[in-house]
């Protein structure tokens, strides 16, 4: 361990060991660069420690219980008991396995790992301060730097994450007892994923959302099955409201969350729930806890970026070119800090590009299609353009659709809500985009991502033999439907 | 970049749409040199062979009966009413017939 | 209904409404041909009524119970009770929904449906006899015929499917009470799938197999996780034995199945179980029922094929060319009756080709890759060539592999046995084949099937962004591994 101020040199300094930074580090190591990866908290970043992995672990585990509890139709009678502390232990075990794996992979690829907080001191040096007792700081000289400091949850006025009943997603994923009731502020994907988890754990969940529907940005037809399922789970929604403050209840039995109606929404009657006889009135919701999930913001303000001359835009994101370069030629930015979409695989892909560009390879961010998945019940997955995006981009489109209720495989799993939709260019049939809501949407989207990347046409997808009985046949059928000759659904 | 260790002669690397085009044109794909990545045979290669020369604008591509169906599907699906139509058709799909 | 002998004409006569025949019929209807589909028993054939669909329904349902029962590690404590009669009712409901859907789709595509048994009377006529009381028969004149009569389970000497404790797969899928104990003869995919179902229902299962391992034809590394899981489920194996006869036990408490050692196996010590101190000795296994699943044979002997001049090979299969044509130009054969692989999607694909060829389209069976799935626990899925097949075909190959235990998504589902393996041509990197054993193998194989059909390279697959966290990332990582730069596993 390095104590005091020492200066060491490195070819590539990578700041932040989330999926963007550690992937950049491993790839740079593979390319024989001398790499130092600095992480202030935990290898794997938000994704492995407090995001993708823990959330998906709890989603899957609560689904196992939920599916068994609701399988009477299938002749299965079960009344599973959930021990959340045990579930969280298991989840923590999964996280440990993956984060220690990341550490090992870094070492095996000759990445120097350094624990500490990095700040820039000038264009070619950074200071790394170690937080442990007796640990000082050190100065690192670098040829290239890769900023991969990620993002953090946005706080809203009067809801501080330090205060006990107020949770961010990270704290919610670490609870070891099930709250009786929970208010979720924000119906984006994180809010909706966690709302389902808690509802399946038996919590009474109410979601407050400023806009008039869940999952802003997704097409209505994709949201419909998710909203329906959420209703079935007993999740309540208050659209058109914004959380204003919370206070302990006088009876000491929890908190009250207050929410004000959004002017516009109330005015134009956009949200049925918001106007129903109480226009302009505030809501008071009693609950045990409140989870604030209103979005994430880049971690770009704690790095002394100015010392390196690196600029951010007005939202705090570091803008980059197709080589993942910032305005400073030898400094790169990847992952959430480099902008939307704030998704792990987007960060990993950028991390690989940054490493390859530094190694002198002709890499570039030139994906035709970036997938996105929402792990709600059912899942939503999209890749490429939606129909309206394609049209805005000047394409004449043809659309094919296949409902899972016509899929033999879906019926045999008892999960047949949703559909596969494929958008293609009309004249030559090139696949432009796809969206799926339903069972295994997250996995099924992969084939369509490959189709888009390879410039495949509807005919290519339709004439590839898909195994029976699988959900992936629905992808083929959607393509056939667009061509006018689906077998298991009517065309036209 | 065609090496000596070339791929076995009877294996064609071409997407299904290109294979069908070749059948339509009566062209043996094994006789073509691919111009795509890694020597993959492309639609343009087949068109070139079919017209006995270099490819033109690519608009001569023969569509089979699918053309009509495609345009029908487009008009049906690109509007709100198209979506409604999909719903209605659903009644004759497997899975929707159970009482 | 037609009574007595009437002659009607049809452009296309299709015999058998399984996935080969009904798909041919629907496609032919779409192509405006005048089609008559004759089925003697049930729309949907073996697959929907007694094969793919009912087996997958029971596999999924028993998995729901099994997963809940074994989720203590995840903090879930459940003791599900299974009511097999209820489960079978549910499964029958799924089957009904699908088969009535097939019937409706046929009608919607103007297919004439005819219930009865068809036999050829000459090259252009067939007789259809109706089985109902008072129903006679009729003669059909056809321009083209498509034979899609499928296959049936093979009987072995002394085990007749009519005898009560002897079951074929169809009868096993229709049981409405759980047998205490079951001997399964044959460790092919049908035997193994059903062995798992019954083991998960609580039956003591013993599998007798002539050869020295499960799932003949599959590579050892793919079988290993399945064999392991079967052992964990308490399934016992007797390799190197062949079932010779069965008899009721004297105490009336069930039956005894006798099995003889296979000479060769015993002689060369191929099977540890078979030789262990009892070489050459017969086995006696007590059980409640015995399921015989030793393979399937084509239904080509009940059609008076000779009258139409259609030939079969020595195994009874009708040989066809790449247009699905038999030796008689206007007669086609598709599906199980036309040969291996006897899989539903292979039959459907052939059915489409036959219909299109009859309609004058330049269709052909020119798939580069035919997927195959075994729905064991975990699933096995393959497409294209194995490494050794590729080498036999003269390719220099490179192989990439990714173990699910390194997949974040797999760990969050608690299912991380198995791997993805990709085989590619070395110099240009064309994907030639893939095999997967593990969670959702059946769905993951689709992307690789498309890759092979499109002539995609390893690089194409590796540089397509895959959503995180998904199992499909493992496909990308296997491709990266073959290229020497996987991120989440070490590269050679
Ligand atoms: C609940 C939740 C669920 C999610 N689910 C998904 C999902 O299913 N799929 C998906 O694609 N995305 C998901 N995300 C988003 C995903 O987590 C992020 O997109 C991803 O983590 C971004 O990766 P990154 O490497 O850019 O940043 P991060 O993962 O945030 O990592 C940044 C790292 O940098 C470190 N760091 C910051 N500043 C410094 C410094 N000055 N010095 C040293 N170290 C520093 C931090 O400690 C952190 O470890 C989810 C997020 C949340 C919160
Ligand atoms: C337990 C089990 C599980 C299986 N699981 C899978 C799986 O997961 N995936 C997969 O791909 N395959 C699976 N299969 C195999 C699959 O069922 C067959 O490959 C498929 O059914 C073949 O389709 P087909 O149309 O050729 O024949 P079939 O489905 O056998 O249909 C033939 C039809 O023809 C009718 N018929 C026969 N003779 C006449 C006549 N003379 N006149 C009128 N009608 C006639 C029959 O009544 C039958 O309905 C499974 C099979 C079994 C038994």
Automatic annotation (TrEMBL), chains A, C:
Task: Give the note.
Answer: The active site is a redox-active disulfide bond.
Chain ranges of the FAD/NAD(P)-binding domain: 11-351
- Which top EC class is given? oxidoreductase
Top-level lineage group: Archaea
An MF annotation (GO) of this entry: dihydrolipoyl dehydrogenase (NADH) activity
- PANTHER family linked: DIHYDROLIPOYL DEHYDROGENASE, DISULFIDE OXIDOREDUCTASE
List the InterPro entries.
Class-I_Pyr_Nuc-Dis_Oxidored (IPR050151), FAD/NAD-bd_sf (IPR036188), FAD/NAD-binding_dom (IPR023753), FAD/NAD-linked_Rdtase_dimer_sf (IPR016156), Lipoamide_DH (IPR006258), Pyr_nuc-diS_OxRdtase (IPR001100), Pyr_nucl-diS_OxRdtase_dimer (IPR004099), Pyr_OxRdtase_I_AS (IPR012999)
Per its record, the protein catalyses:
N(6)-[(R)-dihydrolipoyl]-L-lysyl-[protein] + NAD(+) = N(6)-[(R)-lipoyl]-L-lysyl-[protein] + NADH + H(+)
Q: What does the record give as cofactor?
A: FAD
Cofactor remark: Binds 1 FAD per subunit.
Which PROSITE patterns does the protein's record reference? PYRIDINE_REDOX_1 (PS00076)
Q: Where is the Pyridine nucleotide-disulphide oxidoreductase dimerisation domain?
A: 370-479
| Stated family | Belongs to the class-I pyridine nucleotide-disulfide oxidoreductase family.
Alphabetical UniProt keywords? Disulfide bond, FAD, Flavoprotein, NAD, Oxidoreductase, Redox-active center
Q: What is this protein called?
A: Dihydrolipoyl dehydrogenase
E.C. number(s) listed in UniProt: 1.8.1.4
The family database entries (Pfam families) matched by this protein are listed as: Pyr_redox_2, Pyr_redox_dim
- Is Cell inner membrane tagged as a keyword? no
User: Tell me, which GO biological process terms does this entry list?
Assistant: 2-oxoglutarate metabolic process
